[in-house]
Structures are given as C-alpha cells and as structure tokens.
Design goal:
This protein is α/β, with parallel strands linked by helices. The protein is built from twelve helices and ten strands. It has one domain: NADP-dependent oxidoreductase domain (TIM Barrel, Alpha-Beta Barrel), CATH 3.20.20. GO terms for molecular function: oxidoreductase activity.
C-alpha cells in the first residue's frame, strides 16, 4: 500500500482510513460488536492500512474502548486518531472546545483507548462559544505535554480553517495538519473552497461518507422503503429527528439517480458500485485519505476493492458529469454530528 504525508506534517498515512463510528452496540445505527470490530481492525492492519479514526462521541465511548483493545499489541504501527466536541455529560461545560472540556475529554479518551498518547487529536466541529485562541492554545499544550502528536479539525468551513491557522501563527502554537470533510459523488461542495484552502494552509484531507451513507452501493431503489437491516432503514427508525432527516436528505430523487448511474458504470467495469464510488473519490485532487466505516468484515473487503480499482479516464469523466449537480450540496448540510 502506498503512503502519503498528512498535510504539512511528516506523518505517513495510508490512502484508506478505517472509521470506527460503527464499532459498538449502544447505538442502534452502528451495531458492530467487539468481536467483528476486532476482525475488521486486524484485516485492515494486515492489508497495510495504518490510520484508524474514532471519536469520544461514538457509541457512548464504546468505539474508543474497542479500538484501544484491538490495537494494543500493535500500537506503534497505528496512527490513532480521535475527536472531541460532542456532549460527554449534562453540564454546560461537558461539550465544546473550551479549555476545561478539551482537557477532560482528552484524559477520558486516553483512558478508553488504553494509551498515553494520541497520534491525531481533532476538533469534531467548530465551537462558536469559545474563542479560537483558547482552543488553539489548549491543543498546543497537549502537544507540548506529549499526550498528542498532531492536531486536526473536522467539519470546519474554509473560513474557520483560515481563522484557526492564523490563530496558531499569532500564538506561536501548533497548527492543524488535517481536516475531515464530507465528500462523495453525492456531496462535492468542498471542491469550491475547502479543498483549495486546506492545501494552501497545509492541511491534508480525510474525507468521510464516501459512499453517501450507503446510497452509492446501489442498495436503495426509487419507490421502495429501505430495508430494516440497512443503514438508511435504521436511521429512519431512529427516535432522533436529525437522524431521520439525514436519511430523508440522502434518499432523494437526484441522489438516487446518481446512484443508478454508478450501478451502470460498475456493471460495465464488472465491479461493485461501492468500489467505483470509492475509486472515484480516492483519486480526487486534494484528498489524502478516504474514511470507510464498515460494519462487517465482508463490507470491509468490499470497500478495500475500491482502493485497487483503476478507473479509465472516460469513466472518471462520466462520473464527474453525472454528479455535477452534487457540487451544489451544502458542505456538511446532512451531518448528524456522527462523523
């Protein structure tokens, strides 16, 4: 597997990143138990992958615990990434990017992960209620203490990336080296400003939801309700209005039309729709690593095929054309705070 440096850092990461959002059973939408998660992690590392991404808000902390136990014997070969921002309790200081919350959150993540350092510590989203200087100074302290190696952000706009990097420069603090953003054939909004800004300010890009929540696998059809055992089916059955809205936003007519076209392209190439969608996104300019989130070992192997599939130039052009309308999708307009 080929490796590349993450942004302006010297950290080498694989082109495929294993997302651990589905690891754990406390969340009905996730539902990957520890045994299956360990099998997926072992297969990922054996295939040459090295970066695993989780967050303190995934499956009530189960995800971090599962990942930590699974990599315990191979910790030095893993680039371990986690995130903070989401609520960790009912109190007013139990969420966000303040010094008090980030300090508590990092210590809790280290305990759950069973490690004394995190390779990449990321702000899960922007915090309007905390001065960016406070956040940047706090994160810099983590790096200086040795508890964190590199810093990143997730779901930031281009303007927020610039403001963060400028704050780090003013304070003489450690800058971000990575950004996580939503990117797929269904959501190309980051191409206009975020990808160019990230490159200009030294950030590598880790892209999430490359399969559009599973819509690009071709399993969802017009006029048919999603199966109860599918991701969209579980989201629609959720008690969280935001989860149901996210599913409805993905299962719209334009997206299903794009998915149908991907299915046709895949048939022509004798490949799976998922492999085609992943092969397209991994070769996009500015993309450092693509985050996949398999729930089963079978899904993992199916996703991995997208990193060895070479798309002919005419196929790439065809996919660009059929997904052109997706460039109008608002960046992070369908996020649920999960990734």
């Amino acid at each position: 597997m080929d490796y590349t440096t993450l942004g302006s850092s010297g950290l080498k990461v694989s082109p495929v990143c294993l997302g651990a959002m589905n690891f754990g059973t406390s969340d009905a939408v996730a539902g990957c138990d520890e045994t299956e998660a360990a099998r997926i992690i072992d297969a990922f590392l054996d295939a040459g992958g090295n970066i695993i991404d989780t967050a303190d808000g995934y499956t009530g902390g189960q995800s971090e615990r599962i990942v930590g136990r699974a990599v315990k014997g191979r910790r030095q070969s893993v680039v371990l990434a986690t995130k903070a921002f989401l609520p960790q309790g009912p109190g007013p200081n139990d969420r966000g990017l303040s010094r008090v919350h980030l300090t508590r959150a990092l210590e809790a993540s280290l305990r759950r992960l069973g490690t004394d350092y995190v390779d990449l510590y990321q702000c899960h989203q922007w915090d309007d209620s905390t001065p960016i200087e406070e956040t940047v100074a706090t994160l810099d302290g983590f790096v200086r203490s040795g508890k964190v190696r590199y810093l990143g952000c997730s779901n930031f706009t281009a303007a927020q990336v610039v403001e963060s990097q400028w704050a780090a420069q003013r304070l003489g603090a450690t800058p971000f080296v990575s950004l996580q953003s939503q990117y797929s054939l269904l959501a190309r909004g980051i191409e206009a400003e975020i990808l160019p800004t990230s490159r200009r300010h030294g950030l590598g890009t880790l892209v999430w939801s490359p399969l559009g929540g599973g819509v690009l696998t071709g399993r969802y059809r017009r006029g048919a309700a999603p199966g109860a055992d599918t991701r969209m089916g579980r989201l629609r059955a959720s008690t969280l209005p935001m989860a149901r809205a996210w599913a409805d936003g993905l299962l719209n007519e334009p997206n299903l039309e794009i998915a149908d076209q991907v299915v046709k392209v895949a048939a022509d190439l004798v490949a799976t729709p998922a492999a085609v969608a992943l092969a397209w996104v991994r070769r996009r300019p500015g993309v450092t690593s693509v985050i996949i989130g398999p729930r089963t070992l079978e899904q993992f192997h199916g996703n991995l095929a997208g990193f060895t599939l070479d798309l002919p130039a005419e196929v790439i052009g065809r996919l660009d054309e059929i997904s052109r309308s997706a460039s109008l999708v608002p960046v992070n307009g369908m996020t649920t705070g999960r990734q």
